[in-house]
C-alpha cells in the first residue's frame, strides 16, 4: 500500500490479522506513494497499523514512473519474503504494482475492494482496478454491484467473496475514538453543521484550469465557510494556474484520520471528488456533493445519498446554498454489516 485510503482500509484488516497472530504473520510494504508526513505516518500512528517492514520511498513521479519503480522493488521484497499471499487494496499505482509483481513470480493475489467500475477508462484508477481484478486469485467485493460486475467480466465465482466494505468497519471502530480524542473542531473554531467540508485531488479536476477554477468559484459562493484540507498537489496546481482563493474558503493542511472523521461528522455538506470520502459521508449521515462526472459507488446515487455535479459551477453553487439536502435512509446498509475485515481474514485462512 502507499496512499491514504489504503492505510485506512488496512487498519481494520491488520487488526483482524493481529487477532490471529498465532496462525498469520503480516508484513507491510509501504511504497511511499504518499510521502507527506500528514498524509502517511500520522495514519499509522493514529490507526495503530503495524510499522511497515519495508518502505520503498517511491513517489512524486508520473504514473508510469511510479508503477515501474514500484514493480521492480516490490518483486525484490517478495522474492526475499516468500509470502503465501500478497494482499492489495483499492485502485492506486501501488495496487497494480503489487499485483503485477506477485503474479509474475507465481504468488497469489488477494484484492480488497474488487469489482468497482466507473466505466471511465481515462481515469488511471479504472485501469488499475480492472487489471488487478483479472490478476487476482481471491477478490473481496464490497457491494452487490461489484460482485455482479465481476460475473459480467467472466471472473470465476469461486474466486469472489462479497464481504462488505472495510471502510464501513473503519467508520464504526474509529468514529467513537474520534469523538473521544479529536480537538479539530475547537482548533479551527468550527460550529457543528456550520461549514462545508471539501476535498479535491483527482487529476481531472486539478489538472484542468477551467474545472478547478469553476470549483473554486462555486466554493466562493457558499453561504457558510468551506473548510478544505488541501492535498499538496492541489495546492501546487492552484499556484501554477495563478488562481485566486475566494474568501469563503478556509485552506488547512492535510489532517489526520481521526480529525477528518470529526470534520465529516460535523459538516453540513461534504463536497468531494474522492471515492472514499463519498462513502464516509454516507456512513456519518452527511449529504455528499461529488465533483466528478461519474462514480464507482453507484448505489449512493441510486439511494439518493449522493449528487453527481462534475465541475458545473451553477450546480455546485445551487447545492451548497441549499439549507438542507434530503439524505437517504442510512439503514439501507449497502456496504455490509461492519465485519468485512474479519471475513477477509477467515477467507485467507481457509
How do the helices and strands line up, and which of them pair or pack?
Blueprint: H1 4-18, E1 29-30, H2 41-47, E2 54-55, H3 63-81, E3 86-89, H4 93-104, E4 109-112, H5 124-135, E5 138-141, H6 144-152, E6 160-162, H7 166-181, H8 184-187, E7 196-199, H9 203-206, H10 209-220, E8 226-229, H11 232-240, E9 249-252, H12 257-266, E10 269-272, H13 275-283, E11 288-290, H14 298-302, E12 306-308, H15 313-320, H16 340-349
Parallel strand pairs: 1-2, 3-4, 4-5, 5-6, 7-8, 7-10, 8-9, 10-11, 11-12
Helix pairs in contact: 1-7, 1-16, 3-4, 4-5, 7-12, 7-13, 10-15
Radius of gyration: 20 Å
Order of helices and strands: HEHEHEHEHEHEHHEHHEHEHEHEHEHH
The profile of the biggest β sheet is: 6 strands, parallel
Low-confidence stretches: none
Strand order, main sheet: write it out.
9-8-7-10-11-12
Assess the beta-strand content as a share of residues.
5-15%
- Quick one: overall form? globular
Mean pLDDT, to the nearest integer, reads 92
Distance between the first and last residues' Cα: 24 Å
Please count the helical segments: 16
Percent range of helical residues: 40-55%
Number of strands: 12
Class by helix and strand content? alpha/beta
Amino acid at each position: 500500500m502507499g496512499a491514504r485510503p489504503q492505510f485506512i482500509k488496512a487498519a481494520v484488516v491488520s487488526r483482524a490479522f493481529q487477532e490471529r497472530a498465532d496462525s498469520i504473520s503480516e508484513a507491510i510494504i509501504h511504497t511511499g506513494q504518499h510521502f507527506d508526513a500528514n498524509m502517511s505516518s500520522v495514519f499509522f500512528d493514529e490507526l495503530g497499523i503495524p510499522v511497515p517492514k519495508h518502505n520503498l520511498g517511491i513517489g512524486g513521479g508520473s504514473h508510469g514512473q511510479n508503477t515501474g519503480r514500484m514493480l521492480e522493488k516490490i518483486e525484490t521484497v517478495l522474492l526475499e519474503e516468500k509470502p503465501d499471499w500478497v494482499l492489495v487494496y483499492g485502485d492506486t499505482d501501488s495496487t497494480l504494482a503489487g499485483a503485477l509483481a506477485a503474479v509474475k513470480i507465481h504468488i497469489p493475489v488477494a484484492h480488497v475492494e474488487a469489482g468497482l467500475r466507473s466505466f471511465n477508462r481515462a481515469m488511471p484508477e479504472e485501469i488499475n482496478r480492472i487489471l488487478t481484478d483479472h490478476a487476482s486469485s481471491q477478490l473481496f467485493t464490497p457491494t452487490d454491484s461489484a460482485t455482479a460486475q465481476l460475473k459480467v467480466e467472466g471472473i470465476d465465482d469461486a474466486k469472489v467473496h462479497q464481504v462488505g466494505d472495510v471502510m464501513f468497519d473503519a467508520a464504526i471502530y474509529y468514529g467513537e475514538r474520534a469523538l473521544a480524542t479529536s480537538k479539530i473542531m475547537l482548533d479551527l473554531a468550527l460550529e457543528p453543521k456550520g461549514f462545508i467540508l471539501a476535498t479535491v485531488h483527482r487529476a481531472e479536476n486539478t489538472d484542468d484550469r477551467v474545472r478547478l477554477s469553476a470549483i473554486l468559484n462555486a466554493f466562493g459562493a457558499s453561504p457558510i465557510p468551506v473548510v478544505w484540507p488541501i492535498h499538496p498537489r492541489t495546492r501546487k496546481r492552484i499556484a501554477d494556474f495563478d488562481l485566486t482563493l475566494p474568501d469563503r474558503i478556509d485552506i488547512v493542511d492535510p489532517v489526520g484520520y481521526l480529525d477528518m472523521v470529526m470534520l465529516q461528522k460535523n459538516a453540513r455538506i461534504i463536497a468531494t471528488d474522492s471515492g472514499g470520502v463519498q462513502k464516509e459521508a454516507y456512513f456519518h449521515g452527511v449529504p455528499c456533493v461529488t465533483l466528478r462526472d461519474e462514480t464507482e459507488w453507484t448505489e449512493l446515487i441510486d439511494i439518493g445519498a449522493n449528487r453527481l455535479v462534475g465541475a458545473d459551477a451553477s450546480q455546485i453553487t445551487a447545492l451548497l446554498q441549499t439549507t438542507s439536502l434530503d439524505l437517504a435512509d442510512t439503514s439501507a446498509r449497502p456496504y455490509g454489516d461492519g465485519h468485512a475485515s474479519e471475513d477477509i481474514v477467515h477467507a485467507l485462512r481457509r
